[in-house]
Amino acid sequence: MSMIIFVGIIAIVLFYGISLYNHLVNVKNAVAKAWANIAVLLKQRHDELPKLVEVCKQYKQFEQSTLQKLLRRVHRCSLPGTVKTWMPSDRRKGYCALDWEESSPLLKLTRS
User: Fold this and answer.
1) CB atoms within 10 A of CB 22
2) Are the CB atoms for 91 and 97 separated by under 8 Å?
3) Contact status, residue 77 vs residue 96, Cβ threshold 8 Å
4) What are the start-end ranges of the H helices in the chain?
5) CA spacing 20 to 30 A to 90: which of 27, 41, 42, 103?
6) Distance CA 72, CA 66 (A)
7) pLDDT average per 10 residues of sequence, the chain (112 residues)
8) Residue 83 phi/psi, 5° resolution?
């Protein structure tokens, strides 16, 4: 009888050891997979950085050209002999109207 209890305890300890080992292997694999995912995300971020820089350069050029157009029109309006009034009907006639189209909803709201 004591031999059966001893074999049962050995079997339980062996089963516990095997399940503990399997759990540790699963945790090790999960940690390796997590680090691999982090490495992939860092690589993707590194690959996206030149694209972001290019978009910023394009946006800078757009803003610079818009500012230059605005300054030219303000300068043209400040010349002697130009009409200084702006009315909605004058918008397409070429009087000192700043007639660029803005895409910002806030600017459209403040303009009207």
Assistant:
1) 10
2) yes
3) yes
4) 2-78, 105-111
5) 103
6) 10
7) 92 97 98 97 94 94 92 77 52 48 47 47
8) -75, 130
